[in-house]
Specification:
168 residues; mainly alpha; Tetracycline Repressor, domain 2
């Protein structure tokens, strides 16, 4: 990511995603230890703390900052993406505090920072799809043999970028 200019937000987002995938494929045992340990469903809501998942925490913080700073939360037709499923509102509001803590730890100026539920929702969508693809790839769990998983990964990044206004 060091070779991507700081002003190239979409390039930095893609570089983070590619770096996560590269590290995960090169270190499947470590990936399994960090990301592959299931938690009891009852523990998910009550016992989770941001420190439990440092990469997701940093990734979500970076994505939230990117979306909030660019203000470019629009789809490919130029429509604003500010709708959040009503059933997620309470969870996203709770997570807003976590993201603000992460951004503060990253040294981001958060006073007046336009972090809203739509920004958090989009950041979460990126993480879920990125993690899902990488986990399927690392664990060899694609539903069929795939000769070029990198092509599928690049398609995933392109689709996410277009649907969330990240493409430059």
């Amino acid at each position: 990511m060091d070779n991507v200019p700081a002003a190239d937000g979409p390039g930095r987002v893609s570089a983070i995603c590619r770096s996560f995938r590269s590290w995960s494929l090169a270190h499947p045992q470590e990936f399994s230890l960090v990301f592959g340990s299931p938690k009891e469903p009852s523990a998910l809501r009550t016992e989770w703390h941001p420190a439990d998942d440092p990469f997701a925490r940093v990734f979500l913080g970076l994505m939230a900052r990117f979306f909030a700073e660019t203000g470019g939360i629009v789809d490919t037709e130029g429509q604003s993406i500010d709708w959040v499923p009503p059933d997620l509102v309470d969870d996203l509001r709770e997570y807003e505090y976590v993201l603000r803590e992460v951004l503060e730890e990253m040294g981001a100026e958060i006073r007046g920072f336009p972090l809203n539920l739509a920004v958090i929702h989009l950041s979460l969508q990126w993480w879920v799809r990125l993690y899902g693809h990488v986990a399927l790839e690392v664990f060899g769990a694609f539903p069929f043999a795939l000769s070029d998983s990198e092509a599928l990964f690049e398609t995933l990044l392109e689709d996410l970028a277009k649907s969330t206004g990240v493409s430059g």
